[in-house]
Amino acid sequence: MPNRDSPRPRRRISRMSERLLAVWDVSVVVLVIVNLALLLFDSLYLVPPLNGAFEAVAPGLHAAYDANIRDHFFTIDLYFVAVFALDVLLGWIIAVAQKRYARWFFYPFVHWYDVLGCIPLAGFRWLRLLRVVSLLIRLQRLGLIDVNRWAIYRFYRTYYGVAMEELSDRVALKLLTDIQSEVRQSEHLSRRISEEVIQPRKDALVKEVAARLERTVDKSYAENHQQIHRYVAGLVGRTLEENAELRRLRRLPMGDAISDGLERSLSDIASRMVHEAVEGLRSPEFHRLLSDMVGSGVDAWLKVDATTDRVTQEVIIDLLELLKEQVAVQRWKQSPYTEDDDAQGAIDTR
């Protein structure tokens, strides 16, 4: 049964419709910029010192603004609101037609800043600035603009990355310092690590270590068995040469032939013993033996006392100190952001 909440495939629109929507988006961007400029100017106009300075510098323009715009500011703003509300409705209709969201009523919640920006109150009007960002993203998606090439965007990307790195480094350093304090104040840290972390996983650790040892020995013998046989043969030869009884045997008639045969036989026996011993590593008996040895080693390693607890604490504290030193490195000073970094970090809306 299909999931009704999953995103649905969007319907394509014609090239002419895309162009008309692009023209509409550009027009709305211009209107938003004009509206925001008007809001900013009117806010400054309400400041008495600035108002007086404006009247002193341009009394005629001041009187015209006061009579034609300031007295009808709310009505003028309603004209802008009407266009912005129409843009919201148009975007909603297009989203429903393209099945962009799982439910038809999701659009106003996703574009909440557009909806709230249509409210003609001072607290909501500045949300229209977010509409500019939304429209720029739409124009970027249509390929009409490329914000990655804008100097202001590269400036933003550079110093945003610097600010985020500095902020995250400070948070990480504070967190690591707090962890160090907790480690210093903790008692029986090694015992807790042994009992609560390692002991519950002891069987799995023993099985994994034993299996890795078996694979290591088997692989090493498979890759180096010829060298091992030559070493065994050389070892047998040197041992026999140092044997006094064998030297006396060589002085007898046919002694050299007997000595050489004995040496070959002993070398072959030794090589076969090594081979059989390695083959025996695959047996269940050796696996149990190796598991018991590894288990005994793990038990000895997990045995804790006051010295072990102190050493474990020091190791953890020093490790955290190294992490703090690494985090404290200001990478933005070592590797300044470039245009390539900006392009990679840009919002991909296409």
Q: How is this structure best described in words?
A:
It is a single chain. The chain has 350 residues and is mainly α. Among the domains are: 15-145, no CATH class; 191-303, no CATH class. 79% of the residues lie in helices and 0% in strands. It has helices spanning 15-45, 48-57, 59-68, 73-97, 107-110, 112-117, 122-125, 128-141, 151-185, 189-198, 202-241, 244-251, 255-280, 284-302, 306-327, 331-334, 339-345. It is elongated, with a radius of gyration of 40 Å. Residues 1-10 and 337-350 have low confidence and may be disordered.
Topology (SSEs and partners):
Blueprint: H1 15-45, H2 48-57, H3 59-68, H4 73-97, H5 107-110, H6 112-117, H7 122-125, H8 128-141, H9 151-185, H10 189-198, H11 202-241, H12 244-251, H13 255-280, H14 284-302, H15 306-327, H16 331-334, H17 339-345
Helix pairs in contact: 1-4, 1-8, 2-3, 9-15, 9-17, 11-13, 11-14, 12-13
Relevant terms:
mainly alpha; disordered C terminus; disordered N terminus; 350 residues; elongated
| Strand runs, count | 0
Give the termini distance in whole angstroms.
31 Å
Structural class of the helices, strands and pairings?
A: mainly alpha
Beta-strand content bin = under 5%
Mean pLDDT figure: 75
- Cα radius of gyration in angstroms: 40 Å
Give a brief outline of the structure.
It contains 17 helices and no strands.
